[in-house]
């Protein structure tokens, strides 16, 4: 498909298509993502089957709502009474997870429509991603006629760490936090949940969206930004969309309220083909997506690390409201690497304001450097870190601080982390972001993990640290642009 056709299909701008974000979907997402009761259609008696695992995960995750297994061949699953159909359940049902083979899904959807459930999430594969668009369309038609949103098909399920709900066949709930993760790839979701524990990246909700035959990114974005207090940042893995105008509209609605970071894949020739057979989506041209993201206040991620690094920073720290970022380090080399990265990622360092440079001399030996990056030298102790960070954040011309620590034999990383965490509380009072880079072995990694738990995004290399700060600056600019837009008559 040439670029012009791709533009038309994805973003429909020249056709002047009015974006349609359905209110009933946004309203019902509250029941789907925070359900009071869940039915599992295809709750198998066999522990190796997906439907069985979903019921087990609901129980193991500590879900407090009602669980109704549905299987016409069973009386009981994992100690829970089993129902032959959804309509046989005597209670109201908010969410139905469907995990029966594709040929059985349509009847299950009709049953859910008769029961007037609030929403469905279809795990089953075998629809548009393998060319079976007709059946997918029929299912969606039924659901839309009854105003019951469908998430999927071809998904892992839904997870909510606040309500301790693992309605999926992912192995575990994620490490808890304020980032909502939406992903078109289910397998990536499962892997990325593992990363949340490894890298202390806290998620509020995990939404596997798969073929997105009905509910699309736009409706989820509107729900998460306008109705979900548990979420302050939205991270998205996207393969493609044919609802470009809706996506742009939703992102514009979110601008300045909650940051949205998108990792878009499928830009290579073969990647485009892989996208089509994975989730049946149109991958589209990189240039068109990038332009649309820029126009709609989206922060773009380059890879999975970048997606999580930026989301972590944005979920834990305030935005940087000017370009004046100060780097404080105990290692000259790490400082140089940070300086190079700052230029690369669009936040080039400028000189330390002279009055601040003078104050910084109190926190370094005579051979330290007060230039930006500020080099406290290898002798730096935790008090110097604390003092220099606090002086920096109090200064009106500094809008954010990157703190770098390289392990030395004369410092205890845990003590350094403690003082950085204390200084970050002062930074918060001044609404200035702090990100940290901890370089070293296991002891340093433990201190870095602790620091993240205290709300300071911490990374193992200067480039990733600086890129995270650049995202905080980018979000600062987005807020300014969004405010300007609001002021325009
Ligand atoms: N209502 C409810 N349950 C029913 C019905 C019905 N009408 N009819 C049959 N069942 C029961 C079955 O009897 C069975 O229970 P049992 O084992 O106790 O007899 C249970 O439902 C499951 O049915 P099966 O035919 O055994 O189906 P199976 O579990 O093998 O497969 C599944 C179903 C998992 C949905 C499969 O079709 C599928 O789509 N798998 C792929 C899922 C996937 O990969 N999704 C994308 C994730 S993203 C990623 O890449 C990780």
Task: Explain what you see.
There is one protein chain. With 489 residues, the chain is α/β, with parallel strands linked by helices. The protein is 44% helix and 17% strand. The chain has 17 helices and 19 strands. The strands form 4 sheets. A 7-stranded mixed β-sheet has the order 9-8-11-10-12-13-14, sandwiched between helices. The longest helix is centred in the last third of the chain and has 26 residues, at 462-487. The two termini are 39 Å apart. The relative contact order is 0.09. The mean pLDDT is 94. The site of acetyl coenzyme *A (ACO) has 26 residues, from helix 3 and helix 6.
Helicity level: 40-55%
Quote the beta fraction: 15-25%
Compute the number of helices.
17
First CA to last CA: what distance?
39 Å
Beta-strand segment tally: 19
Mean pLDDT figure? 94
**Biggest sheet layout:** 7 strands, mixed
- Gross morphology is elongated
- Residue runs with pLDDT of under 50 for 5 or more positions: none
What structural class do you assign from the helix and strand content? alpha/beta
Oligomeric form of this entry? Answer: single chain
Q: Strands across the major sheet, in which order?
A: 9-8-11-10-12-13-14
């Amino acid at each position: 498909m040439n670029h012009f056709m791709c533009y038309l299909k994805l973003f429909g701008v020249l056709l002047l298509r009015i974006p349609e974000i359905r209110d009933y979907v946004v309203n019902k997402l509250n029941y789907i993502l925070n359900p009071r009761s869940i039915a599992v259609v295809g709750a198998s008696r066999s522990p190796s089957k997906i439907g069985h695992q979903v019921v087990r995960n609901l129980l193991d995750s500590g879900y407090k709502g009602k669980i109704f297994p549905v299987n016409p061949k069973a009386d009981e699953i994992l100690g829970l009474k089993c129902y032959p159909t959804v309509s046989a359940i005597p209670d109201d049902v908010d969410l139905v997870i469907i995990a029966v083979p594709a040929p059985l899904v349509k009847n299950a959807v009709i049953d859910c429509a008769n029961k007037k459930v609030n929403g469905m999430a279809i795990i089953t594969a075998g629809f548009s991603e393998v060319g079976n668009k007709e059946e997918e369309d029929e299912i969606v038609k039924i659901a839309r006629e009854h105003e019951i949103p469908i998430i999927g098909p071809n998904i892992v399920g839904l997870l909510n760490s606040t309500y301790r709900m693992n309605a999926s066949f992912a192995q575990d709930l994620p490490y808890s936090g304020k980032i909502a993760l939406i992903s078109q790839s289910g397998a990536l979701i499962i892997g990325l949940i593992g990363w949340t524990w490894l890298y202390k990246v806290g998620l509020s909700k995990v939404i596997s969206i798969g073929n997105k035959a009905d509910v699309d990114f736009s409706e989820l974005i509107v729900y998460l930004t306008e109705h979900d207090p548990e979420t302050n940042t939205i991270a998205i893995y996207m393969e493609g969309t044919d609802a470009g105008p809706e996506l742009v509209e939703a992102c514009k609605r979110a601008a300045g309220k909650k940051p949205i970071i998108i990792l878009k894949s499928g830009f290579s020739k073969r990647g485009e083909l892989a996208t089509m057979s994975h989730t049946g989506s149109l991958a589209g041209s990189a240039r068109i997506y990038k332009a649309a993201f820029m126009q709609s206040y989206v922060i773009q991620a380059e890879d999975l690390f970048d997606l999580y690094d930026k989301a972590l920073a944005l979920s834990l720290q305030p935005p940087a409201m000017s370009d004046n970022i100060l780097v404080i380090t105990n290692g000259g080399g790490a400082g140089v690497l940070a300086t190079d990265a700052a230029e690369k990622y669009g936040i080039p360092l400028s000189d330390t304001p002279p009055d601040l440079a003078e104050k910084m001399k109190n926190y370094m030996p005579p051979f330290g450097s007060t230039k930006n990056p500020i080099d406290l030298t290898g002798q730096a102790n935790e008090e110097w870190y604390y003092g220099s960070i606090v002086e920096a954040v109090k200064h009106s011309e500094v809008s954010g601080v990157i703190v770098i620590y390289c392990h030395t034999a004369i410092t205890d990383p845990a003590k350094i982390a403690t003082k950085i965490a204390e200084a970050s509380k002062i930074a918060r009072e001044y609404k200035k972001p702090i990100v940290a880079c901890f370089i070293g072995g296991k002891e340093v990694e433990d201190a870095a993990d602790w620091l993240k738990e205290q709300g300071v995004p911490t990374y193992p290399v200067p480039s990733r640290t600086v890129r995270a700060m650049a995202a905080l600056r980018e979000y600062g600019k987005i807020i300014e642009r969004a405010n300007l837009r609001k002021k325009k008559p």
